[in-house]
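We store amino acids, tokens; thus:
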Amino acid sequence: MRYCINCCIHLLPNDLHRQCFRCRGPNHNNQKCPVCKGENNIPLYTDSKQMKLLAVLEVRTDHSESWNGFFCLRKGKLCSLIFGLIIMTLVMASYILTGAKHGLLLIPSPFHYGSFTSNPSLMDNESLSDMKDHYQPSKMNISYVNDYPSIKLIIDTITSKIEFKTRQRPDLEELRKQEPHMFSVIPNKFLPNSKNPCWYEEYRGNTTTDPYATNSYALYSKRFRIIFDYLRKVFWNHLYHYKGKHYRLRCLPHFYIIGQPKCGTTDLYDRLRLHPDVRFSASKEPHWWTRKRFGIIRLRDGFHDRYPVEDYLDLFDLAAHQIQGVLQSEAAKVRGKMNNIIIGEASASTMWDNNAWIFFYDNSTEGEPPFLVQDFIHAFQPNAKLIIMLRDPVERLYSDYLYFVSANKSAEDFHEKVAESLQLFENCILDYSLRACVYNNTLNNAMPVRLQVGLYVVYLLDWLTVFDKDQILVLRLEDHASNLKYTMHMVFQFLDLEPLSEKQEALITKSPASNTRRPEDRSLGPMLPTTKAILRDFYRPFNTKLAQVLFDDAFLWKRT
């Protein structure tokens, strides 16, 4: 059995243990070396017997072992040098990439597409008077400013291709062929003694049947499960029994808040639901008309099973129970009291999101969708009322970016995403119509920021092909933020709601704003001034047309 004299570790046969160089060298002297002094006296216990170490160890101190150690040492230094170079390279690469992103390099980044400007964006429910408080001048990045002319050429090309064509409205029979089940569930007429569109539907289950067992909202969303657990408990108590049959009251919304995202729809929803005669769906944004009926739960997850219309109607059961209570009250039976409770729905995608059409409808219209959401809503509810809340599209886009982008947010990053989106939009409009590009699923998914959502007039004109102008109330977030009481009065009047007491009105108008900008997003400051200038140029022709359609120059957003 062999051991290393310095390490006292077991050696295999013929192992010289060349890695150990603590005391062996070319000029080694056992008498002078403090480690080797008296090594003949170092005892080693092997098999419980004390032995002289040199009696069992073979120690070799020839020069070949020393030279091997020298080369091994050189090899270690070389490895350390290579490792150090790798670390230095990674550090430099990180610096270069970070510098390019934030404009810190001495040479301009090749990834700067263009430049845009912005003043601080209004929070979704922030008043215009607060703009000066939140405004912080951006430091101008010269490379972005120099890109302005090239991006301006892109916008000029887009502007030259803009043409607002009237859409051909599909007839009712075409709609029936596309959605036969929906037409078999929703009747042509509603109860005459209810302001809200409701009807009775025969229920064929029994007391042990779970009416919500297959509801897709309950199956795929945890937040709905509590609501449906409650509805299961009270469901049988709200059935109407007539001639041995059971009927349940079904309702659709009387009004829809249809858009737009990041324009204050949440704040309007929260205030409206405080009115004693207003109820809403179980969730603010069911997104049924635009997504769920096509099987879209999350856009990034692709398609699932389509949500039937019954699942959508289930969301209004809580409100339907209250309406039924009014209809079956003594006052209603004796004096024919009218139900004044109305139901609303506030999916902010309803106005603009028709991206799923390409997967379900025949594409024979040169890239334009043959059927839109409003066609079906109008087919069932020709008297529906629609509320639209808009804001300066430039500020809306920046707010949208800050809300939906989760990492590496900055004014520079927003600028580059806007530039890329403009280039993609230009590529589309060179070959297709404006409407085809606005509703183009591939383009909308490819654009890093949702430019198309701010093209308000394109969507509004399409809604006006099926609904009368007096059925649509268009508001501005800027007016809502600066004169909340006035805009809420406009909404109450539009919906024919009963006047409120001073106490009720104070509760609605003095509540804090909802869904305001997050503090961490506010700290990023405004968009670059060049970004704002470019976006102003892009949206200008659309805002001009919008102001003409609404006969209101406030929708030019010149003062924001």
About this structure: The CA atoms of residues 270 and 367 lie 38 Å apart. Residues 172-404+468-519 form a domain with the Rossmann fold fold (CATH 3.40.50).
